[in-house]
Amino acid sequence: MRIIASLKIAGRALRRNKMRSLLTMLGVIIGVGAVIASVSLTSGATKQVEDQVASLGENVITVFSGNFTSGGQRGGWGSAPTLTLQDAAAIALLPNVAAVSPEVRDREQILANGLNWNTQVLGESPGYPEILNREMATGAMFTDQDVRSLAKSAVIGQTVVDQLFPDVNPLGQILRIRNIPFQITGVLKPKGFNLFGQDQDDVVIVPYSSHMHRITTRTFVNDILVEASSDKTINQVQDEITELLSARHKSPDPDFTVRNQADLMERVSSASRTMGFLLGGVAAVSLIVGGIGIMNIMLVSVTERTREIGIRMAVGARAADILVQFLIEAVTLSAIGGAIGIVSGMTFSLSIAYFKNMPTVTPVNWIIIAFFSSAIIGVFSGFYPAWKASQLDPIDALRYE
Q1: Burial class (CB in 10 A: 0-12, 13-18, 19+), 354
Q2: Beta-ladder partners of 175
Q3: What is the DSSP pairing of strand 97-112 with strand 256-260?
Q4: Within 13 A of 147's CA, how many CA atoms are on the CB side?
Q5: Using CA atoms, how far apart are residues 102 and 12, in angstroms rounded to an integer?
Q6: Is 258 in contact with 65 (CB distance < 8 Å)?
Q7: How far is CA 319 from its chain centroid?
Q8: What is the C-alpha separation between 341 and 343, in angstroms, rounded?
Q9: 315-335: buried (b, 16+ CB within 10 Å) or exposed (e) per residue?
Q10: Range list of H helices, 56-149
Q11: Do residues 378 and 294 touch, judged by C-beta distance below 8 A?
Q12: How far is Cα 32 from Cα 340, in angstroms, rounded to an integer?
């Protein structure tokens, strides 16, 4: 019953000074709102980036040419042609390797349907769509037999369709690369731009053997795409590839570079987490400032209500009752401010997401953390003023003017 009575008294005290109560809550509202908004936006951005990385393929390992030292000269990815089809074939025999695609790349001016377009021409294996999570919109991917026979078959992206076949079904049409006719067997489903700003649909894919022997005359590949059987074996497969190629190339220094999507995902996620912590730290400072505001107002309230405290003690209120009453007032201010701040933060982040076309994700655990943090700040901010009020001498309090 004493708690209920204290709640009623605290409620009346807060209602008597509505404007002051609102201004006191404002610091907590801003602090909690900033926390929720920053977490929502950074979580949304992190998810967007992670989705884009995942769209590049799951459990993918890429082996690049380069990363060598020769005669004092050092190079990086693609700085030297060091990977061969034999390397790709050897990697395909490793356990826990699901698919392999040796890749050759060039930009070419292509012609079709009386139009021309400059695009990226990739030489790949039939396993390319599986490795990079690409699906066919229409038609089909070329086959292993097409690779063996150096078939003049091509699969194109939606951007190429839009540029060369705006009003024509591209399937079965002839596409010329360096004046060599390739027949279109399929069209990839659109994927848009990737994490690096590249249009994934602006591409023509041909058998790597056709690229190497018909379009160009090269014996090396730019890189090798490898799909591990699962995310649990990706690091093991990466180590086995490194060991295998080191033995095959017999080089004192690696003339290749091996990277996997998990590394990229971790780096991106780590950067996003760091940014989230920085924004959260700034928001937490606002929350602490709000707590200081509550303490300040509660101290003023104790001074203003000294005579009221003395009367309550004179009619039987204990020090604990006074302590609880002022603690309830402080916690009520911070809890209501926290609830309003959560709603405000979510509203702000959703508005940004709507108008700026940005994703937003508000983790439930952060909503709980923000609310209870505001309540705890209320307890800490209100404890000293409440304790000071409970320690007043009833006689001195009654004499106070």
Answers
A1: exposed
A2: 182
A3: unpaired
A4: 17
A5: 76
A6: no
A7: 52
A8: 5
A9: eebeeebbbbbbbbbbbbbbb
A10: 85-92, 128-131, 144-148
A11: yes
A12: 8
User: Degrees (nearest 5) of the Cα angle 14, 3, 393?
Assistant: 75
Rounded CA Rg of the chain: 34
Q: What is the C-alpha to C-alpha distance for residues 374 and 396, in angstroms, rounded to an integer?
A: 34
Residue 42 CA to its chain's centroid (Å): 7
Query: Is 232 within 8 Å of 220 (Cβ atoms)?
Result: no
Closest CA relative to residue 39, chosen from 353, 343, 280: 280
Backbone angles phi, psi at 189, to 5 degrees: -65, 140
Residue 242: how many other CB atoms lie within 10 Å: 16
Closest CA to 152 of 187, 111, 113, 185: 185
CA distance 131 to 224: 11
Tokens linked to 37:
């908004």
Half-sphere exposure of 237 (CA within 13 A, CB side): 30
Report the alpha-carbon distance of residue 105 to residue 122 in Å, rounded: 5
Question: Tens-digit pLDDT profile for the chain (401 aa)?
Answer: 466 665 666 666 667 777 777 777 787 888 888 888 878 887 777 777 666 666 666 788 999 887 544 444 444 444 457 899 999 999 999 999 999 999 999 999 999 999 999 999 999 999 999 888 889 999 999 999 999 999 999 999 999 999 999 989 999 999 999 999 999 999 999 988 776 678 889 999 999 999 999 998 888 999 999 999 888 888 899 999 999 998 898 876 778 888 887 666 666 666 666 766 776 677 677 777 777 777 777 777 776 666 766 777 777 767 777 777 777 777 888 888 888 888 988 888 888 878 877 778 777 877 887 788 777 877 777 777 777 777 766 665 555 55
Instruction: State in Å, rounded, how far the first CA of the chain is from the last one.
Output: 31
Please tell me the distance from the alpha carbon of residue 153 to that of residue 146, in angstroms, as a whole number: 7
The total number of residues written for the chain in this structure = 401
Side chain identity, residue 196: F
Of 179, 33, 51, 49, the C-alpha closest to 116 is: 179
What are the extents of the domains in the chain? 2-52+267-399, 83-254
C-beta neighbour count of 19 within 10 angstroms: 7
- Global confidence as pTM: 0.62
**Alpha-carbon distance 312 to 321, whole Å?**
9
